[in-house]
Amino acid sequence: MIYPDSFEEKLGFNQIRQKLKAYCHSPAGEDWVDRMRFSSEHDFIRVLLKQNLEFRQILEKGETFPSQHFLDASDWIQKIALEGNWLEADEFLQLAYSLETIIACKNFLVKNAEVYPELFRMTEPVTVTASLVQNITTKIDDKAMVRDSASVELGRVRKKLRDEQGRLRKLADQIYRNAVSESWVPDGALPTIRDGRLVIPIQAEHKRRLKGFILDESATGQTVFMEPAELLDANNEIRDLEHAEKREVIRILKELTDSFRVQLPALKSAYRFLSQLDFVRAKAKFSLDINADLPLLTDKPELVWYVAKHPLLYLSLKGKRDVVPLTLELNEQQRMLLVSGPNAGGKSVCLKTVGLLQYMLQCGMLIPVSDRSRAGIFKSIFLDIGDQQSIENDLSTYSSHLRNMNMFIQSATDKSLVLMDELGSGTDPDFGGAIAQAILDALLQRRVWGLATTHYYNLKLFAGQQPGIRNAAMRFDDEHLEPLYMLDIGKPGSSFALEIARKTGLPKSTLQEAEKLVGKDLAGVESMVRSLEKERQELSEKIKRMEKQEIELKQSLSRYQTLSTDLETRKKDIINRAKEDAATLLKNTNREIEKTIRHIKENKAEKKETLKVRKNLESLTQQVEAPKKETKPVQTLKEGDRVRIIGQEGSGIILTIQGKNATVQFGLLKSVTKLDKLEKITAAVEKEIVARLRSAGINVHEKRTLFNSTLDIRGKRVDEVLGILDQFMDTAILLAQGELRILHGKGEGVLRKVVRDHLKGYKEVASIKDEHIERGGDGITVVVLK
Questions:
Q1: pLDDT tens, position by position, 71-105
Q2: Which of 483, 506, 529 is the last residue of a domain?
Q3: Residue 216 belongs to a domain with what CATH number?
Q4: Sorting pLDDT into bands at 50, 70 and 90, what band is 113?
Q5: Does 448 share its domain with 309?
Q6: Which residues are annotated as a binding site for ATP?
């Protein structure tokens, strides 16, 4: 149920219908726009939304989908349905074109059934085949003429007609030349056709000289158009043949129409599919215009929206300034929201946004919210907004509001959404506020869902104390006295009436008198609300800064732990290798000594053999002795130098030098390292690092040149995404990239979830987040590497 009857006009949905019609290719598609209605059937709405989403994906991918000859066949179908009636040749040609479009659309969706399952299901009633198109094209050519080959009789008649026309032209040329030679023909005049018969123009004074019949004359009467007697039989024969041709063409068209009359059920289903597809495409194009998406749909009332925008406001401000999005929540515990704040602060826009988006959703349209949002289904929506004064019914604005409130209390249920603008206004504030509070209380007892806007303090206090309803405020810049159009849930808003009045230039004495009349208590509440708002903003900013610092600290700690683990692992490897080398060397030394002693004994210490053995021992001594360190030229390091730890590939920048230690910035990590363990990155060192990587089969320069930090995986299947993602991440880590972007689109969020879950397995990943809303939002994942 939708109340009142002017619901669509009050929320602007009639404008959305007009925009959808502008995108339709056919009147039949526009009829679907007119028939679009609010529904509370969850499964039906889900199908409509999925169709909308899938066609939006077709448009986003730029796939080749038929877009021509979306024709309305309702008139043709009516003519075919009448026994004895027939379609003209040009109508059959248009029918063939549109049937080809239907078949092409079906083939595309059948081929992509797994990608677009709901659009594929639309093709199931379509049974027309290419044979129907062939039936038309074999009889009618692309100039909308029945072909000579359409029947044997038509071919015979047309051949004879062409022969007779040729004979007639020859005979007419002969008579015309004779008349010209006799100067009977006006200068420049040629044989022509009158009443379907070939005639020769003759000057009026010579009409008796040519034997024949006068069929017409010029406006001045100086020229007559005569059918020579010799042409009479030929003209009659041609006329008879033309009638015979026409009769045969009609017979062929009737026969062709009869064959299509048998196919009427299939034709109706096919053109219903085509018109519905036209409608779905129009919704998809509008979805792209307003950046709409599919929220998580539930089969019960619920409203948890992130980044919600009013679609018409978004379109009107596009290219000028951004629309401030709304984030709001109505749930089982808090079903109602009371929005307060200054005039022109966005309260009514907030209410209209809720009503319009929920109505669009339940009409089967995607809405401009984040796909993380949750949206439920309401059985009915009630609206009270604007001036509803009625002269005919002798109702004032306030009386009309009260009549609507009575309707809400009597008809609304726990599955209804009630929207009330400026609740309680239009009468004495004391009585209006009291009645409005009683109405709110009655709706809460009926567990109604809803949103109301107000300026009344008693309602703000009521919402702050009563379970089931929450306060919300439209934020206001009290320093510049400008609305921020941002919705804050959990606290009431101030009207800022005195401040705005002061800005408009009212005399100071007048404002002071107003403050006295308001009273200290009310002014104090206003002041307290503003003070709390200011403190809340400051606290919110502090929390954001602390969260940012905490993230940076965690990243630094993670990098330090990783580096420490790597260094410890390398240290153990070096010590183990040294131990193994020492053990091997000691074993070889002992073996050589024993061998030397045995050799001396066997040769009884002959001088020649002793010298030989001594040389062998000296050689072994050189092997056992620790190799002397190569003396390197002393290098002077200074702040700002790019260095690396000797033997490693990673590099950093020297920040400060204190004695024998230096503080080096390695990426996001700062480390204090001894100067003698550092090596300045020179061209030779850079070459060494590149050569080391190239020896492993890696061309760093080539990879760095070809690497693109943005990976586009839209439209790809999940099973092929992971391999592509791994290859992309391996290259990025090798090249020490800082920030990456993975473009997966929004859709239902499947690709986004798969990508982000997989990225969590990389220890090199520092953070994963959404792109800025203006540059793609959660349709793009931004990856920061350590």
A1: 989 999 999 999 989 999 999 999 999 999 999 99
A2: 506
A3: 1.10.1420.10
A4: very high
A5: yes
A6: 341-348
Q: Is 448 left (phi over 0), alpha (psi -120 to 50) or beta?
A: beta
Q: Domain check: are 109 and 163 in the same one?
A: no
Give phi and psi for 113, each to the nearest 5: -60, -35
Boundary of a domain, candidates 206, 232, 256: 256
Looking at 12-21, 42-51, 69-78, which range is the least confident one?
Answer: 69-78
Alpha-carbon distance values, 660 to 172, 336, 540 (Å): 119, 68, 45
Q: In this structure, are 451 and 432 located in the same domain?
A: yes
C-alpha to C-alpha distance for 426 and 423, rounded to whole angstroms: 9
CB 357 within 8 A of CB 370: no
Helix boundaries (H) for 604-667: 607-624
* Token reading at 634: 């002393």
Range of the domain at 576: 541-621
Mean pLDDT value of segment 365-386: 93
pLDDT in tens, 527-539: 555 555 566 666 7
**Identity of the amino acid at 761:** G
Handedness of CA 524, 530, 534, 539 (dihedral sign): positive
Q: Is 342 helix (H, G, I), strand (E, B) or coil?
A: coil
Q: Residue 458: name the closest of 423, 490, 485, 406 by CA.
A: 423
Beta bridge partners of 457: none
Residue 488 falls inside a structural domain: yes
Residues 149-165 have a mean pLDDT of: 92
Q: Which residues contact 546 (CB under 8 A, 6 or more apart)?
A: none
Q: Do 269 and 246 belong to one domain?
A: no
Range scoring the smallest mean pLDDT among 434-448, 552-566, 593-607: 593-607
- What does 164-204 look like in DSSP terms, one character per residue? HHHHHHHHHHHHHHHHHHTT-SPTT---EEETTEEEEEEEG
What is the count of structural domains for the chain? 6
Residues 493 and 570 in one domain: no
Would the pLDDT of 743 be above 80?
yes
Q: What is the dihedral of CA 171, 176, 177, 182, to 10 degrees?
A: 130
Which residues are part of a known binding site? 341-348
pLDDT band per the 50, 70, 90 thresholds, residue 463: confident
The pTM for the full model equals 0.62
Structural tokens at position 275: 């018109």
Residues 308 and 453 reside in one and the same domain: yes
Asked if 105 contacts 274 with a C-beta cutoff of 8 angstroms, the reply is yes
Parallel/antiparallel/unpaired status of strands 326-330 and 380-384:
unpaired
Same domain, 568 and 589: yes
Task: Check whether residue 445 and residue 342 sit in a common domain.
Answer: yes
Locate 448 and state its tokens.
């109604």
Could you tell me if residue 511 is inside a domain?
Answer: no
Closest listed residue to residue 427, CA positions, set 410, 417, 439: 439
DSSP structure string for 91-146: HHHHHHHHHHHHHHHHHHHHHTTTTSHHHHHHTTT----HHHHHHHHTTB-TTS-B
Average pLDDT along the chain: 82
User: Does residue 615 lie in a domain region?
Assistant: yes
CATH number at 770 reads: 3.30.1370.110
Structure tokens at 299: 């089969």
Taking only the tens place, the pLDDT of each residue in 183-228 is 888 888 888 888 778 888 988 888 888 888 888 888 888 888 988 8
